[in-house]
Amino acid sequence: MCDAAVFATYVHHLDPVIVWVWRGLALRWYGLAYLSGFVVGFLLLRHLARRKLWVMAPEKTADFIAAAALFGVFLGGRLGYILFYFLPKEGFGALAADPFLVLRVWEGGMASHGGILGLVIFTWIYSRREKVSWTGLGDGLCVVAPVGLFFGRMANFINGELYGRVATGVGWAVKFPMALGDDKAPESMRFDEAAAAVTAVKPGLADVHQSLEAGRQAIEAGLSANEYLAARGPMFDLMLAANRHSPEVSAVLGRFLEPRHPSQLYEALLEGVALFAILWLVRVRIPKAPNGLLTGLFFACYAIFRIFSEYFREPDAALVGPLTKGQFLSLFMLLFAAGFFIYAWKQRGSLEMAPP
Fold first, then answer.
1. SS3 at position 2
2. Is residue 355 part of a domain?
């Protein structure tokens, strides 16, 4: 690739932290994204309730959203990440050694499939307690859920995580420095070169780089790799921090990074904007749609959009045959969609036979 094309590609340098509050406590874009999703979801659900387009009363919307956030999204999403992604890769031993990892949501984040499953279980329990239709309750939640998905994917982009596959001839491709720390990415093979180049621009990193270089030389001499691995983590963190505040470092790193699809933005548009538009249109244009129809549409459209977008996203877990983990889990969502469509069709038939 020619130098002109390399330097024409944007090098991601956004900071995941909005502001440091106190002693390591920070306000992060990831947290703000979830908060924004819940606030906007609450306002939209209350609007639907006031128009009699949801089974809950408007005054109960706030309590429902708060409970759904805690028990559905956070609990389900985090447990989904642990079960679907962390344990298959690291094993139970790693979790037993550090059980508080479950609470550190900023390390690995949450799995959208887990969050969706968590909401399914939560709404079933909540509907029984409130004595309302489970499918009717879920329909309203599914209409506004894409808003949270949109904010979440935007936060993924700001964090520079869950980036896309290597892109060729794509004018909007992005270079993600996080790929330097991914053993599966070709960028990781250039880590030492990138570290040396960054040190030349930022001499203040020389001490850490010397430790990294000493470790690398130890490996070449046939010694243990522990010293190198111990130095690589801090060097990687310092490189990321320098990249966020120095255009010179960004320009240097750009020479060692591959242009990639900004798959987070693709998913934000599909799973967020497009899915919300479809569900909202059906909700307001067909106010007497049978319960379960919107839930079925959510599962079906989300699965299709996710399966498609995964072709542009770098796999973040082991493949399941020819499929990524996200595509494999989405197949089950298609089965859920079929079940809700069948239920909605039966409901439609019973409504047609009901006396006026």
1. coil
2. no
The verdict on 143 and 20 lying in the same domain is yes
Domain final position from 254, 278, 312: 254
Q: What is the dihedral of CA 134, 135, 136, 139, to 10 degrees?
A: 130
Distance CA 156, CA 159 (A): 5
CA 327 to CA 304: how far, in whole Å?
9
Same domain, 249 and 266: no
Tens digits of residue pLDDT in 281-338: 999 999 999 999 999 999 999 999 999 999 999 987 777 888 998 899 899 999 999 9
What does the alpha-carbon distance between residue 181 and residue 69 come to, in Å, rounded to a whole number?
A: 32
CA distances from 71 to 116, 118, 126, 259 (A): 11, 7, 11, 38
Domain count, the chain: 2
138 lies in some domain: yes
Distance from C-alpha of 338 to C-alpha of 334, rounded to nearest angstrom: 6
- Round to whole Å and give the CA distance between 179 and 163: 8
Q: Following CA atoms 279, 285, 290, 295 in sequence, which dihedral angle do they give, to the nearest 10 degrees?
A: 0
DSSP state of 290: P
